[in-house]
Amino acid sequence: MTVPTSVPTSVPVPTAVPIPDRRAPGSPALDRALDRAESDEPIDVDDATALLGARGRDLDRLLAVASRIRDAGLERAGRAGVITYSKKVFLPITQLCRDRCHYCVFVDTPRGLATRGIPTYMEPEAILAIARAGADMGCKEALFTLGDRPEDRWRAARTWLADHGYDSTLDYVHAMARLVREETGLVPHLNPGVMSWAEMQRLRPVAGSMGMMLETTATRLWSEPGGVHHGSPDKDPALRLRVIEDAGRSRIPFTTGVLLGIGEDHHDRAEALFAIRGLHERYGHVQETIVQNFRAKPRTAMQNEPDLGLVEYVAAVAVARVVMGPDTTVQAPPNLTDAAELDLLVRAGVDDWGGVSPLTADHVNPERPWPELDTLADLTARSGYTLRERLTAHPRYLADADRWLDDAVRPALEALQDPVTRLADEQAPVRGRSATRDDGAPVRLGRDAAAPPVGDPRVDAALAAATVAAGTDPSAITDEDAAVLLTARGAQLDALAELADRVRAAAGLDAVTHVVNRNIDTARLVGDDHEAGKGDGLSVDDVAALAAEAAALGATEVCLQGRPDPSLPAAVYTDVVRAVRRAAPALSVHAFRPPELVDGAARAGVDLPGFLRMLRDAGVTSVPGTAARVLDDDVRAVLSEGQDPPATTWSETISAAHAAGLPSTATLVYGHVETPEQVVAHLRTIARVQDRTGGFTEFIPMPFVPADAPAAVAAVAGPGPTPSESRAVIAVARLLLAGRIDHVQAAWTKLGLATAADVLRGGADDVGGVLLDGALRPSAGPEAGLVLERRDLEALAAAAGRPLRERRTDYGAVTREGEGSPA
Known about the structure:
42% helix; 33 helices; alpha/beta
């Protein structure tokens, strides 16, 4: 079989290009911005816009700032003087796409591919041939590049996928990424375009990293005729920003960036960089920000447009460095800039050249061959830096692999990294089938692998006591032993999870259950003068329409959460419930957390029991027991910045709801500033309330997600729990609540699907709601965009080895034709 290659060309290394001094006279905004940057003061979008216009001596000043910021970050990371790259092969899985970008030469039509003898999709044999050849040449990364969802546009794509047994292009990418990793040892980096949260979760176990260029936030380039992205559904900037955010929620090391010279202006460029920075500050997942320059290509609508000018490009790279700061990677593709000009990019703050292949072409820019690696190393050295190979996941993510990488892909990355620097071990052999031991069991690395061969004897003793108690009364485990069990890791954690799952099975919980529901954010409620369906606000009529739509889609529950605007009357609480009840009489109305219950009673001027009776009479059937956080006043003060009421208020409010005939969930938010002892005390409080009222239907332990907290709280609380910590909390919760609360939920929106599957094998029995978005107002819920699809439910149940069963809010059975939900 012929393997397509690009033969790198030796490039002479000329002297650096001087910067012409073309500074326009009188630029006070630029002077101010440069002064702020040089003084390490924060800059804003307007400052960045001004800096993008730096030329001549001003550009020299900007480059000096960018270099200093980059060097400070490299020193902090322990890689002073090092610029990195990834040695990879490029796999163009398909060159079909549903988009119509005016500058793209990568995509083609089915007829065009047939004329050139290119198949609709690369066959597995061709994919493996390239991957194996790359592995033989020392490559460690396999970049999967392709068009967005071609099956939505091209019948040929749909036919090929159906004939080969795949539901979608992303299903094929999943299968091929797994094949490449297992057979060759190369670690996949996936660039499949726009993905949903659920699709990212499915792809996470087969990839070391993923990526998608933001390109621009200039909406007019997408929405207006003549714009370079007009007619391309996947190039809506809001959609692409949502994808980048979902990658952060999914804890996926992610690559994104900007494409310059496609019709955007300086303000657009600055705005795009700040959008990327904002998402990275919230989630910490943007491992590379690529600054790419437009290069005109023949046979495209932009073939006669000028390439982005060198000085303009260099200024943009430097601004990207200033905006992104010292602790992020700023990348520039080395083949899109002439060799003589690479020194300017180094001066502009670049610390990574991205993927460079000794084998395959840059299929997106085929007219620009890769520099030979020796040449790139020489050019980098002439700029005063050493070129080092990295892996597809950058060192900071490899150093915290338990949090950022799926167990299935970690062994391949572990085998290829230098254990000290976390860069690539350039001498490491690239071998396939590295993700399993000789006996076929998965290899566990990261935090679990770091556990000592002989476990903590305190954990062993606590496990022994818990095992004895499990035969009679698991909740009789002492507080001291329970706190110790929360620290179990490695083999001891596996034993704890197995014990918790036996207790779950002994309770007769033989299925993985779920409810089909819709969440609606009642904090967005507005008055009667609001025009239905307009803006972000929701009128009572809007909520009624959403409830009716949810019922039509198969929901059995609608969840209403969020404190209505203080300007609205007390009747807003009962009015919205009655509207939902009229629109969808069969729905359970799971409504209003304890803070909203207290607020509603105060607005109505009645005591809490009286207000709860009003809600029940209006149609509320149960209440969400969220806002419990940790029932410890010291912890609550930190998490709420002193705004939470005392823990006793939560317990009293939820107990009053139970007394009013309104059952509730119970919750815990863990993985921040709390101690194991405080978690145990929280569980004991929940158990005592249940002993008094019997009103809890389920217990929902939720990991702390820094991105969902105020910045000041996140800074104190830390990065949130690891999957191992989540497994321990859920297992201990199952043991301590046994005989009191039957159901323990895997909060999939916060755990992710992989960890949710783990905890369903370690004590959890329920996955909660599927969170339908619908079509009327898909953003109306607080967790919009996070929808658990039927295939994901089935996969979770299969991973647990149990059947899938739909339930109602009260865990009563749902009977549907064909069994299951339309989720």
